[in-house]
Each structure stands twice: as structure tokens, then as C-alpha cells.
Write a structure and sequence with these properties.
By secondary structure, the chain is mostly beta strands. It contains three helices and 29 strands. The strands form eight sheets. The chain has a nine-stranded antiparallel beta sheet. A five-stranded antiparallel beta sheet has the order 1-2-3-4-5, with no helix packed on it. A five-stranded antiparallel beta sheet has the order 19-18-21-24-27, with no helix packed on it.
Length: 368
Amino acid sequence: MSITVEEKNFGLAVNPLTESREMVRCYTLKNTKGMSVSVIQLGAIIQSISLPDGNKKVDDVCLGFDDVGGYMANRGAYIGGTLGRVANRVANGEYTVDDTTVNVTKNIQDKFQLHGGFVGFDSVIWEVVQKTAEGVVFRHESPDGHEGYPGTLTCRITYRLDNENRLSISYEATTDRETVVNLSNHAYFNLAGHGSGARGLAQHTVEIASSEIVETDDSQIPTGSLTIVSGTVFDLRSPVLLGDRLPQFENRLIKGFDNCYVVNGGQVLRSVVKVAKIVHPPSGRSLEVWTDQPGMQFYTANNMSTIAGKKGSQYVRHGSFCVETEKFPDAMNHPTFPSIHLEPNETYRHEVVYWFKVEKICRCCYKN
């Protein structure tokens, strides 16, 4: 049995690049194990991920909205969206190439750029260039000078689902001028169910194969150094219960995790490797993150204001987590970081696999 791909209308949205109204289509991939993934043309957004738990109960474990309006009204949370051209922060909204300063837009407090600027890849309508036996391929052409970035950047994102409950995302990008690119996805997960909130998130254990994080200042701009996690709240090399760890951030400026973990030795690899595992023992659901990238931003929705989500759910602070594989933030301003520069004769590639599994339910240590 192969994967089925169903297509339907999701709603009308204004394309910010053409200012015309377009129909956004939704593509739902389904496997034989009862797992389904829906992705939409707006932002190449992951709109839902549903799968059974250890009791065969199916839940949607990915935050999102039932209509286009929900995404438009809550753009600042980047829920499920593709991040680009450059995910994460660009200090002072600028970088230098061969003594020439490139100024990009500053969409945060007129101080720095976050997630590609005012109209990032999460806000544009992607074209669907192919439906395959196992998924869908999106394409977007980012014009020269958009949000300040040089070069016309042509991007493709391939979403694939298999019968092992693996959701694979493959990014590719090419340019006609020297530019920078660092793509990611901002899906928010809660393995207890997308609407289970802070109580559900507190029940998760997190393990990240990383001994260092990218050091940042009070504005979360990288300093250029890496920080050893040993002996700190950031050490997730052994599984940690979020309900125990998150309260330890209360006396800190940043009230939870929002850190780029150095994975894979800080190198771009030739194939994907497991870098993180998040488990929700009461349901038995787990998520493994496999990637070829050198970094993974781990975020516990510290800045989430209460949002009305899918099916009448309330999304709240510390009610979900993000695992954004990427190169390091602000890499164009730090020569020691893995390079995000892209030349016309090169292809940017980035692979990530979200591998969902069901483990034995631990009934002894939780009261549902």
C-alpha cells in the first residue's frame, strides 16, 4: 500500500507579492498506519499531523488553524510556517560581503530581522509543482532584493510521508547572485494533542544530542561563542522532564528554552542522523528528529500569547515545542559558524525527518 494524497481548497488569501487573491490548496498525506499530515500552499505550512497513540486513540499533535484567517491573524507566531530566506535572527539587519554591507529589513523593534523579515517564506503562497506517490513538492521564487536580500532565490520543499510514520522534509535552493539562505520550519508540537496545553507539555521528556548551544545576548543575538551545556539548565543530553525543568527558567530573562543546540558536531553531514528525541509517556507517542544540519533551535513557546487554535483549542505559553533544524542564527556575521552563503553554481540542501513512534505507555508514573 502506498501513501494517498488528497487535495482540497483551504481558503482564499492575498498573495503579498502580487496583492491578488488566490485559492490556497491543502494536501493531506495518509499512510497505512493511521497517520496523516496536511500541508497548505500558504507558507508551505504544516497544518496538522495526526497519529494514533498506544491506545489507538488518534490525536492531532501539531498546532494550527482551521482556516486561512487564523494564520493571517497570528502571523507573529509563525505557526507551522516555512522560515526563510534566513531563519532566526540577523543582527542589526545587516551583513557584509567583500567590504560591501547588505542591509536587510528589520521587522523586530527596528533593531534586527527575524525569520526573513516582514514577508517571510511563511507568508507567501507557494506553487505546487508535483504530487508524488508519497507526497507533494512546493516551489517559491523569491525575487532579487526581497526583504533586502540579493539574488533571485528559487526554492523547492518536498514533503514525504512513509509507512514507518516518518515525515521527511527536503529543502533545496539555488540563486542567480551570491546570497545567504538558511531555511527551517516552525511547526509547534504537543504529543499529548495539539490543544493539551501546558499540562500536556509538562509531561514530555526531552533529549538532545548536544553538548553546546549558541551563546546569545539579552536580545537573543549570537555573540559568536558557543556555551557548554554541562551543569546548566540547557543540558538535555539525558532525558529531562519538561515539568521539572521549565520552572528553573522563572528567574531568567528568557522564560524557557529558545536556544540553537549544536548538533552533528556543528557540521553539515552527508546524511541524516538522530539529534533529538521527545517522548510523551502517558500516550506513548514519541518524536525523533533526524537531520543533516549543524543546529537545532529548541523552543518551548515562551512568547505564545493565548491564541484560538484548531477545533476550539486554546494555545498557550509553554503549551507546545518547536524543533527547528537549521544552520546557526546570524551565521553571516560570524565567520566561525557554518556558512550560509550560497553562490550561483551551488545548491542549498537541508534534510530533516520527523519520525513519530509509539512506545509502551508508562501507566505507573502518570495519572491521566
